[in-house]
Design a protein that fits this description.
Elements: H1 2-29, H2 31-34, H3 39-70, H4 76-108, H5 115-120, H6 123-127, H7 132-156, H8 169-184, H9 187-191, H10 210-216, H11 219-227, H12 242-252, E1 269-275, H13 287-295, E2 297-303, H14 309-318, H15 332-335, H16 341-346, E3 351-356, H17 365-371, E4 376-378, H18 396-408, E5 416-421, H19 440-460, E6 468-474, E7 493-499, E8 507-509, E9 513-514, H20 518-525, E10 548-552, E11 555-559, E12 564-568, E13 573-576, H21 581-599
Parallel strand pairs: 1-5, 1-6, 2-8, 2-9, 3-4, 3-5
Antiparallel strand pairs: 2-7, 6-7, 10-11, 11-12, 12-13
């Protein structure tokens, strides 16, 4: 019995050491976002991370403890072999999760959760997120770390196959029962307490520096925890009675009065660009878009609704806010009930077409588009293989000229809506032009911007120009500069520009607003009812309340001209701003979004 207890403790220590190793590796890899931290902060991260590390190690210990129970009755050599195989497999999974976490955190701004499995359903798109040599080096590094950890395990647990089983059967049964009780006691560190409060990632938060808090989160536990969260968990974001939340949101969204008219026609042809990762912080890398902003209408205070394309497209076309822990687009049963610009214009006699150089089945986008009336669609499979020059599909310099030529020579008796989703400014930012900026992200933005300039040059010389409204909007922002953390407001700042012959005159709109407000504003200019866009407002209405709302991984924010509040839903605390009226309205808005998904969609 004594030897088994020793091996039980040694195995526990081994896995705690593996969990501890992840912390300095993660912090070193994210040094740019960590900023200036002291040596003591590294120790504080390890100390505060211990409850989650202990919980994950305890999960892993359960099967080993059961193997020790069986070892009283089975040959030690067999138990040792099973233990070895089990450990090697779990180590492989652990290293894969830790490596993925280090790889995706800079772009995502949060640890992998069950969302990862949605993206893994489209492996081609996952592989496209980084150059091949990054994948090769990353996988090679993970294999090396895995091999070293396997070797360390073998040396640390040496002798497991020599545990004696020579006691009498009554003693074996008694010892086995005692070991079973010890294994059952792992329930406590797994759960975290005997009270109603269970282990959660918010427990390790300890600092005003959110990157220190993120460094303390165990990515394996983060995945385990997210698996228990419902896709649209209304209860998780319920903070007050529904009636109170409705009242607070209604005060932010008063009925539309008389908007300012900024277009020369109520039925323009509309070309709606959704621009991959076009952050306001990269404005200097967009000379063509800046020129259009100086000639057309520039919305300079716009916040993206969320942080990924699947959320951004729904926010852009349906005016529906993104969700912190889920993606509405991947649930066709919900998205079919959403309002959508295509639906609204289809009812007014518009012809619709969607243009994208990538895979329209990624994150179930095809079903969303079809529900929105986009029967005509261009995607990567519309092009020969020879033109699919990037990992994501057809680059922008191939897609946009095709769209520009067709639109410029189109002779349609009905007004038209074209939605164009760009892709070349997505990671890994591999574009044909490499000499504009040294930074690959800025270089990719400049490349797509030049493609937009060529598109406009083609169109402005066509008869279509005088009756055309071009809308340019990012799908989401990007963490540039690279010290931006995922929850910060500047991470979500995006440019929105209206251009084309249908724009009456240049003006800059400085009203604080969100991505979800653009479609209601367009429809209001066209005198089309937009009351079913429940969370958007007409930015050009003089009575509109200036505010913007966005969500990030298990958190959300409300920005007003007077105040900014950012709430971490895991810790249920304000990480920017103070408790008060704005914080209450932020909670009310988030609650109503989730309640709407539950009751209306």
């Amino acid at each position: 019995m004594k030897q088994r207890l020793i091996y039980f403790c040694k195995y526990y220590v081994f896995w705690l050491a593996v969990m501890l190793l992840q912390k300095p590796l993660f912090m070193l890899s994210q040094h740019a976002q960590l900023g200036d931290v002291q040596a003591l902060d590294w120790l504080r991260v390890i100390a505060h991370a211990f409850p989650l590390d202990l919980s994950v190690a305890s999960y892993i210990m359960v099967l080993f403890g059961l193997l020790l129970v069986v070892s009283f009755f089975a040959p030690a050599r067999i138990i040792a072999r099973i233990s070895d195989i089990y450990t090697y497999v779990i180590l492989l999974i652990t290293v894969a999760v830790f490596g993925t976490d280090i790889g995706v955190f800079p772009a995502w701004g949060f640890h992998p959760d069950k969302t990862l499995f949605i993206y893994l359903a489209s492996p081609k798109e996952v592989l496209a997120c980084a150059p091949w040599y990054v994948w090769v080096c990353g996988i090679a590094a993970m294999i090396l770390v895995w091999a070293l950890l396997c070797l360390a395990y073998r040396r640390w647990m040496n002798g497991l196959d020599e545990i004696p089983t020579q006691d009498s059967w009554p003693k074996r049964c008694g010892y086995a029962f005692a070991m079973l009780l010890i294994t059952g006691a792992l329930f406590l560190p797994i759960r975290g307490s005997l009270s109603t409060s269970t282990m959660n990632t918010g427990r390790v938060y300890f600092s005003e520096n959110q990157m220190l808090n993120q460094s303390a989160v165990n990515p394996i536990f983060n995945i385990i925890e997210s698996m228990g969260v419902q896709p649209f968990d209304t209860q998780r974001y319920t903070y007050m009675p529904t009636e109170e939340a409705e009242r607070l949101v209604a005060e932010l969204l008063p009925p539309t009065a008389t908007p300012q008219q900024v277009l020369t026609t109520s039925r323009p042809n509309i070309i709606f660009f959704i621009l991959e990762s076009f952050s306001q912080n990269a404005w200097d890398a967009m000379p063509c878009l800046r020129q259009l902003a100086e000639e057309g209408i520039y919305f300079s205070q716009v916040a993206a609704s969320s942080f990924r394309t699947d959320r951004g497209v729904v926010a852009a076309l349906s005016g529906f806010p993104g969700q912190p822990t889920s993606s509405l687009m991947v649930v066709p049963g919900k998205t079919k009930n959403l309002p959508q610009l295509g639906k609204s214009l289809l009812a007014e006699g518009y012809q619709l077409k969607f243009w994208y150089g990538g895979d329209e089945d990624f994150t179930s986008m095809r079903s969303y588009l079809i529900d929105g009336g986009f029967v005509q669609r261009v995607s990567d499979h519309s092009f020969p293989v020879s033109q699919r020059l990037s990992k994501w599909g057809v680059p922008d310099h191939v897609l946009l000229p095709l769209a520009a030529d067709e639109i410029a020579h189109r002779n349609s008796p009905s007004p038209t809506l074209d939605v164009i989703l760009t892709l070349s400014s997505h990671e890994p930012f591999e574009v044909p032009t490499t000499d504009r900026f040294h930074d690959p992200y800025l270089n990719s933005i400049a490349y797509t911007d030049s493609c937009l300039g060529a598109f406009v040059d083609t169109l402005c010389h066509s008869p279509q120009w005088s009756n055309t409204l071009l809308v340019f909007m990012a799908d989401h922002g990007y963490p540039y500069p690279y010290d931006i953390q995922n929850h910060e407001p500047r991470r979500y700042a995006i440019p929105v520009v209206w251009a084309g012959g249908a724009v009456a005159a240049h003006r800059e709109i400085k009203t604080l607003c969100s991505q979800i407000d653009i479609v209601p504003t367009i429809l209001s200019q066209m005198d089309i009812d937009h009351s079913d866009y429940w969370f958007g407002k007409d930015i050009l209405d003089s009575t509109a309340v200036p505010f913007a709302f966005y969500s990030f991984n298990d958190g959300f924010a409300l920005l007003t001209p007077q105040d900014t509040v950012v709430i971490d839903a895991k810790a249920n605390t304000c990480i920017i701003g103070q408790e008060g009226e704005t914080e209450t309205r932020a909670r009310a808005f988030m609650q109503r979004v989730m309640e709407t998904i539950d009751s209306r969609l």
